[in-house]
């Protein structure tokens, strides 16, 4: 069956209100496909029955299930390899020099989904930082189901086959039945929390690098600007913001300036770029 227009309007309004995600017309099939397992799990005969009951009797838990189903995005280890190459080749050598007095780095994997990006960052840092350095990685996501999955740190054979080198699988994972589990030595440096990017950010220590990739594309311009402004407040003055390949700050937030990072690009606040230019001058 096809999702009715009133049902689609109900879901799109809910998702926009709770997650600031814009579901444009034409996404009816996607919404229905994502909600079929949810409807079955709560005992409804189909999506229409599930949504009709939810509109008659609002249920916060069922609303959360809809948000979780519609904000679960595609991910893999070392997705879009270039940002990770940029870290190894350009960003980390610079940070190792500038943070030599503290020998500690903080990274944020925003919209971390099931955790592959955060653990890819951990592997990169584990392999690139000199002895005696430490690091912290925080992963956040609006989906409580994804936060639970990421915290568990277990992945199927198919998932570890996507993006991981065989040597990395052997070194950083251990068998857990039919799955693979992140080893404790790597896992201890990564924490996951439930967080909405469109709500006021909770108090956080500043980050050296923020990965905010492939999430702004789901927001309208005003929400993108709000998220970028909040991110700037917790990015160290010389820190870097990485966005997805199809995302940019240009025309949205003039406080950022795009800078080269290996074969890709990242963003620094304009104050940091100006300060760097003054030092070089």
UniProtKB/TrEMBL annotation:
Residue ranges of every copy of the CheR-type methyltransferase domain listed in the record: 1-272
Highest taxon of the lineage: Bacteria
Entry's Gene Ontology BP terms: methylation
Name this polypeptide is given: protein-glutamate O-methyltransferase
Catalyzed reaction equations: L-glutamyl-[protein] + S-adenosyl-L-methionine = [protein]-L-glutamate 5-O-methyl ester + S-adenosyl-L-homocysteine
Alphabetical UniProt keywords: Methyltransferase, S-adenosyl-L-methionine, Transferase
EC number(s) on file: 2.1.1.80
Enzyme class: transferase
Gene for this chain: cheR1
